[in-house]
Structure formats: C-alpha cells, structure tokens
Write a structure and sequence with these properties.
Layout: H1 10-14, H2 24-37, H3 46-53, H4 58-61, E1 62-68, E2 74-80, H5 82-98, H6 114-119, E3 126-131, H7 141-149, H8 157-167, E4 169-171, E5 174-176, H9 184-191, H10 193-205, E6 209-213, E7 216-221, H11 231-242, E8 253-256, E9 262-263, E10 266-267, H12 276-292, H13 294-309, H14 321-336, H15 341-357, H16 391-411
Antiparallel strand pairs: 1-2, 3-7, 3-8, 4-5, 6-7, 9-10
Length: 412
C-alpha cells in the first residue's frame, strides 16, 4: 500500500535542504524524495522540472477548462500535467507539515470543516458575511515567493523562485495561484495568515468574532457594529486591500436575528442545521425515485440541471443520482449529526431504494467499490416495468422542484 504524508515525517526527512538549494538538480532531487515518500510517481528529471517551473510554457504544463458554478456562471480551472501534479502533491505534503493554521482559519485545514466554521457564530444577534473577490487569482507569484522565503520554510532564493513557478500559472495580469493545483489551498492560507491576525484583532476590539473559510469571511456580534455602511466594514476593506485582495460588495450580507442566519451555507440561527430547502430537495428526489424508478428520475434530473446550468461534464444520459443523494445525505449527517431523526429517516429510505433497484455486486450492495449500474435492456430503470409516457411528467416535476428551491435560496 502506498504511504501517505501521515506515515512519514517529511520535515525530518528533508531537514533544512530547502534553505541550501542553489541549482535545479538539487530541487529535483528533493521533489523526487517527497513524491516517493507519499506513494506517488517520482523519477522527475531536471529539464522536466525547469519546463514546469516556466509559466510561459502553459500548454506543456497544464490543461484549462471552465467549470459551472452551483448558482450560475463558470469558474476557470487549471489542471496540472500528470507529472507536475505528482511534483505538487509531494511538495504540498511538506507544506501541510510546516503550516500551522491560525485559530480563525477553517478552510483547507485537516480536522476542520464548514460546520466548525459556522459554530463560531451560533446564536449571535448580527452576522456579517463578506466574500473576497477572485481569491486565488489575487495571490501573485511574488506573494507565494515571499511566503516560501519566510518562516517556517526559509527556502533559498533559487528554491523559492523555482517552486513559486511550479505553483503558479500565467494569466493576463501575471503569474497567479490557480484553482486546480493541489498546493493552492495550503499556500493561500499561508499567504493570508497575517491578514487573519489583523482582522481577528480588529474584530476583537469591537467585541466581534471572526472566522474565514477560503474566500468567505464571517463576523458576528451581539452589538450593532457590523453594518456594511459603518466604520468597521471600511476598516475590514482597508486591511484586505493592504494584503492584495478586494471585497466583493455584491456578496456582502448582514443577517439579523429573527431571520434565517447562514455561515458558509450552514444555518446558525438556533443550532447548526441544513436549510429546509436542502432537506426538501433530498426528500423530493427520493419520492420521485420511489414513484417513477431510478433511471427515469436520473434522466429527468440531469435534463433539469442542464436547463438551469448549461452543459455538464462527466454525464451521459443520466445523472449519477445514487452518488448525488449519498453525498447530500453525508453532508446532512455531518451538519445535523448521525442520530438526527430527519437524517435517519431519509438515510433509511435511500437504503431501501438502493436495495430495491440496484442489483448486488461481487462486493455487496452497490456502493463505492462497484462500477456504475447500467439500465437493463428490458426495462428503462431497475426494479419495475417501464412506464411509458411518464418521462415528461418526471422532468417537469424535477424542473419545478429545482426552480422553486433556487428561488427560495435567492430570496433568502
């Protein structure tokens, strides 16, 4: 079995080598050591590493595509070449052992989650949610290089120059941290460490609580001091701009007690919870699965999703409904707890439908170790005879359900 970064102390293994790297050969050796010790491909060559560190050779080091966002629009993704991916995975494993997260940072940190981030603001009278605009593209190669030169890594100038090239991608505004590189989350937190300290100190001075999950910053207080037109908001904007970022004023939201309060998608009005719309959507999909069958619902759900969000990658005629539902139920379990009656009721219904409609495989009932089921030739979906003419009804039902939930989210 391949080892992971948890099985070996990479800090002790590498020691202070990064401080005394003066050539590409020396850095290539370090990257090979890191990769081999976390169980991914090693055997990198000097010229290969130099090519990947040159951001102008974009077509040789990465692939670009756009991913649809949940509520419309697209996000630019830069996927590294396989060999570059392995280099970055090894270096990221080392970064994670050096990086010590602040008490206010909850995104991209092992053992922390959106739920723990939301719990910091539970039951507060006022909650201010602020979004950083273009978070990853705002982190420049120079900012990354400064982090690598400073404590705790203290890389040599040559190592920082080459590693910052490996970890960034060329954009019209310059070399920046891309979404899609495994090192980007950890480096973004390292870049934001001092900013988090200043924002937390500013919040403490007015008796407020601060936390950050990636580009989502949240402040909460029982005092009326968080208004977007007030002095504190201006102070937050000044601090954020000092560190090279900008606030997305369109996503700034002040939530008062008495209405639904959310932090990073988790309801925190009285207890941490998922939204009613979230539970309702799971319940609706399970009902349609039970009423019309798996494959009819999976086809209609994909059609409705495409109408709202455009083309989707990785799907044929059907949405992977079983995986979507399992993921949403796992999220509900994380937020509400495994003993919550609403979660247990929906989870039991999901298991009943899986037993009814999905045939058993070599390693038990269909799950993570089995391949995706194919619809039988005789029937359009499993478990029941085909019901002709119901596809349009299901599609309309799914479309109306998703449209209603989207409207509720926008109004909230």
């Amino acid at each position: 079995m391949a080892r992971t970064d948890r099985d070996v102390n990479l800090k002790a293994l590498i020691g202070n080598q990064l401080q005394y790297i003066y050539s590409a050969d020396e850095l290539t050796n370090v990257l090979n050591t890191l990769a081999s010790n976390i169980g991914v491909f090693a055997g990198f060559r000097r010229n290969q590493m130099l090519c990947f560190a040159d951001t102008s050779k974009d077509n040789r080091r990465a692939k670009r595509y756009r991913m649809h966002k949940k509520h419309g629009g697209t996000r630019a993704i830069v996927a590294p070449h396989q060999s570059l991916l392995y280099m970055l995975k090894g270096f990221n494993a080392l970064l994670q052992q050096y990086y010590e997260p602040t008490t206010w940072c909850y995104g991209f940190v092992k053992g922390r989650s959106v739920v723990q981030n939301a719990q910091q603001h539970l039951g507060k009278r006022y909650i201010l949610n602020i979004d950083i605009k273009d978070f990853f593209p705002s982190i420049t190669r120079q900012m990354v290089e400064e982090v690598l030169l400073a404590e705790p890594l203290k890389c040599s100038a040559e190592a920082a120059r080459l590693l910052s090239g490996l970890c960034t991608a060329a954009e019209p505004q310059g070399d920046v941290l891309p979404q899609g590189f495994p090192t980007s989350p950890t480096l973004s937190n390292m870049v934001c460490k001092k900013m988090d300290e200043e924002l937390a100190a500013a919040a403490q001075r007015i008796g407020a609580t601060y936390s950050r999950y990636a580009d989502d910053m949240s402040f909460s207080s029982d005092k009326d001091v968080l208004r977007p037109t007030g002095s504190f908001y201006l102070q937050v904007s000044t601090i954020v701009e000092k560190y090279g970022f900008r606030l997305n004023d369109r996503k700034t939201r002040l939530q008062r007690r008495g209405r639904r309060q959310q932090v990073t998608g988790v309801v925190v009005s009285h207890k941490v919870n998922v939204t009613r719309e979230y539970a309702r959507q799971i319940r609706s999909l399970l009902y349609m699965w039970e009423r019309y069958g798996y494959w009819e619902t999976a086809r209609a759900a994909l059609r409705a999703y495409r109408e709202q969000h455009g083309k989707t990658r990785g799907h044929g005629e059907y949405l992977t409904l079983y995986a979507v539902l399992r993921g949403r139920l796992n999220y509900m379990k994380m937020v509400k707890g495994e003993t919550d009656p609403t979660y247990l009721k929906l989870w039991n219904k999901y298991n009943q439908l899986m037993q009814r409609d999905v045939p058993k495989r070599r390693r038990g009932v269909y799950g993570t170790n089995a391949h995706r089921p194919e619809p039988s030739r005789a029937n359009d979906y499993l478990g029941e005879p085909q019901r002709k003419g119901c596809a349009g009804v299901v599609a309309l039902f799914v479309a109306l359900t998703l449209a209603g939930l989207l409207a509720c989210n926008l109004l909230a």
